[in-house]
Specification:
- By secondary structure, this protein is mainly beta.
- Strand 4 and strand 5 (125-146) form a beta hairpin.
- The chain contains 1 helix and 12 strands.
- An 8-stranded antiparallel barrel has the order 1-2-3-4-5-7-8-12.
- The relative contact order is 0.16.
């Protein structure tokens, strides 16, 4: 009986030591993982750069490339992006009395809430997966100029008219505490609804406004970069 009692004490002691060692190792791993990465409760800000931006007259910052992130836990981050895009093109032909110029400009404003789930990675590298939805509004402006006249058409949408959803994956690389660079790609789809818009036409100083009763839907499914290169920091 005495031997059995001693054996039980020995096994209990070994189990307690093993548990303490496991807890100590987990605490050490947690400390190492947060040596560079943002801690729970931190807020992060990031800006994205797209290497496939357009020409001199274009501003391309769509897809939530200005983004705020809340570190809900070591694994989960909640984020909100704000994006905008402006595209302008011009076509000029003829000379003298035959001269004409057509200018087309479109703009887009988006709001992109989403979340990410991070994997262990390394002390500096943080791979993740996530999802993001988008809501946006668009507008367009066309200007037709000749030697004798100038006509401006504005198509303005009232309210939200673009919707999107993207599944995404990427990584953050922390090169200093709370400061990182990262890359991200996603696969998503979008819907554009042409409804609730009006057109303003200005001809030689006279303005006419016409409500649009045309309704259309455009659906797209394509790979998206959301965005490809980012710089961020936590505070």
């Amino acid at each position: 009986m005495k031997k059995v009692f001693l054996a039980v004490l020995l096994l209990s002691s070994m189990a307690m030591n093993a548990q303490e060692a496991t807890e100590s190792t987990s605490a050490e791993e947690q400390a190492v993982s947060n040596e560079f990465k943002a801690d729970q409760g931190k807020f992060m800000a990031e800006i994205g750069f797209s290497p496939v931006s357009a020409g001199f007259d274009d501003v391309n910052l769509v897809g939530g490339q200005l983004r705020g992130v809340y570190v809900a836990s070591d694994k989960v981050k909640i984020r909100l992006g704000v994006g905008f895009g402006i595209n302008k093109s011009a076509d000029e032909t003829g000379v003298g009395n035959d001269w004409s110029k057509e200018t087309h400009r479109t703009s887009l404003l988006t709001i992109n809430p989403g979340f990410t789930y991070s994997f262990a990675g390394t002390p500096k590298l943080e791979p993740y997966i996530g999802a993001e939805v988008g809501f946006g509004t668009t507008a367009s402006k066309d200007v037709i100029e000749t030697t004798d006249s100038k006509i401006t058409n504005k198509n303005i949408v009232t309210g939200i008219n673009t919707f999107s959803f993207s599944g995404l994956t990427g990584f953050n690389y922390y090169f200093a505490k709370n400061i990182f660079i990262g890359a991200e790609i996603g696969l998503g789809f979008g819907v554009n609804v042409q409804k609730g818009s009006y057109t303003e036409t200005v001809t030689e100083g006279k303005t006419e406004k016409e409500e649009s009763d045309v309704e259309s839907h455009t659906f797209a499914f394509s790979p998206t970069f959301v965005p490809t290169l980012r710089l961020g920091w936590a505070f």
